Amino acid sequence: MGRSAPYAVLLGAAAYFYALAERFEFSAPGGRLGPDAWPKIVLGLLATVCLYEIGRSFLGRAGSEVSGLLQSFLEKAADDAESGGAAPRSFRRLLAGIGITVLYVALVDVLGFLLATALYLAAFMRVGRYRRYAVIAAASLAGAAALLFVFMRIVYVSLPPGVGPFGALSYAVLSLMGVK
């Protein structure tokens, strides 16, 4: 029972919050998800994982040690640190990452979500010392477009379009994606 206790607590919390999500009062437009949909989906997935892990612990399939993806990452990081394969830490890059994040928050309303996010992703890759500019451009544009699509077409979140020509660019891309 000891290994399944955290999952039982999480399962109880998921059930409680799911019940709270059932009480949302709203009128969703026809064919659209309401504000209760995503919390219920996430909580349902959490409950499914918890039930799976509880079942695993009762069937005796759980190992005696914690292992998995996180454990393998920790072991690899320890091996890299010992062999000198890990990249040296850089306080300047940390500050640059914080700086571009603050700049992103400050400029997202002016530049719009699409352009600001593309520039943010590109800047973050550059701060991370990635040097292939064509890959940076493609990944940042594709990443920003994918996030825009997910937030506007699937989750129905309103995002800042930007002002002036930046807003016109955002609306043009949104119309190409079929977002009204």
Structure, explained:
This protein is an all-alpha fold and 180 residues long. The protein has two domains: 5-83; 91-177, no CATH class. Helices cover 70% and strands 0% of the residues. The protein has helices spanning 5-22, 37-58, 69-83, 91-111, 113-127, 133-154, 165-177. Helix 5 runs antiparallel to helix 6 (133-154).
Topology of helices and strands:
Elements: H1 5-22, H2 37-58, H3 69-83, H4 91-111, H5 113-127, H6 133-154, H7 165-177
Helix pairs in contact: 1-2, 4-5, 5-6
Mean pLDDT: 85
Compressed to H and E, one letter per element, the order equals HHHHHHH
**Chain oligomer state:** single chain
Number of domains: 2
The class by helix and strand makeup works out as mainly alpha
Q: How many whole angstroms does the radius of gyration measure? A: 22 Å
Silhouette: flat
Strand percent estimate = under 5%
Q: Largest sheet, if any?
A: none
Total helical segments: 7
Helical proportion? over 70%
Cα separation of the termini: 52 Å
> What's the total count of β strands?
0
As residue ranges, the low-confidence spans are none
Note the main attributes of this structure.
mainly alpha; 7 helices; 180 residues; 0% strand
In short, what is this structure?
The protein is mainly α and 180 residues long. The chain is 70% helix and 0% strand.
